[in-house]
Amino acid sequence: MTPAPPEAQPDARPTPPNQAPPLRELHATVALVRAFELAVAALYRDGEVPGFVHTSLGQEAVAAGVAAALRPDDYLATTHRGHGHVLAKGADVDAMMAELFGKVTGLGRGKGGSMHIADPALGILGANAIVGAGIPLIVGAALSSKQLGQDRVAVAFFGEGAVNQGSFHEAVNLAAIWNLPAIFLCENNLYAEFTDSSTMTRIGSVAERAIGGYGVHAATVDGNDAAAVHAATVDAADRCRRGEGPVLIEAMTYRWHGHYEGDGQTYKPDNEASRWRERDPLTVLRARIVAEGLGSDDELDAVERVADERIERAVTAARAAELPAGEEAYEHVFGA
What we know:
By secondary structure, this protein is of the alpha/beta class. The protein is built from eleven helices and eight strands. It has a single domain (23-319), classed as Thiamin diphosphate (ThDP)-binding fold, Pyr/PP domains (Rossmann fold). A six-stranded parallel beta sheet has the order 2-1-3-4-8-7, sandwiched between helices. A two-stranded antiparallel sheet has the order 5-6. It is globular, with a radius of gyration of 19 Å.
């Protein structure tokens, strides 16, 4: 049976009193990611963005909550659905959009596209088109941080489908026995590509599998509540920096669109998406901000308009940018 939207996860951690969630900052980040993903979906539909595109519409709270809890020098590795994570970590919006257009002003000079975005200067080790491939990558980053005494945390984003990959089990086991500062961030959006994840394992909880299988600390949170994700990540990062070893966070969320843009989603039950949209991450944040007297609806509307306008400028700049010259195909290539 497909889980209902997480109206209240019983083991979601409240934010500690001395670490109040930056609700306005979280709202601005969610709004920016939402605007970016909506634009990319439309651009792909209209044939302006080449290759495949996998958007994170509906999952923006996870990216915002995690990134707000990290330091600028912390490491991050993401997936084929990683636009939001990279934007939330601070990647340049214009360079992000240009990369999707395949333009020379992109983060990878137009050579990587949607699924291979990286910015090492921000600790962003890259998106990866191979399921689960970023998980062992951040174990290496966490090991280097520990060995060099850098106090940096390494975070890997992945979907629950990746938990059945050998790379997940090997990486979590190594992080556990070496007591590494690694955070394994599972965005459980209920579907591994086109398959209901509940049909793929006998133990439905990824957090339980991590605790029972590898003895790591794990928590399950409402992935549509950016403040809850932020609190869990603050706790996880603090544990890592205290030398208490790796943490797994399972964020329960839902992708509004299919596995890729253009996917008909015939594998999803009727009304499932509409029920989850009632837990829209923007709606959840707005309600809390207004309830706590931290902003009005008009002010939040203005923030979302600013995000829309920022993405429009990025699209305009990407359209005007140059394609890489032909000879660039031979740059950054190594051979014996």
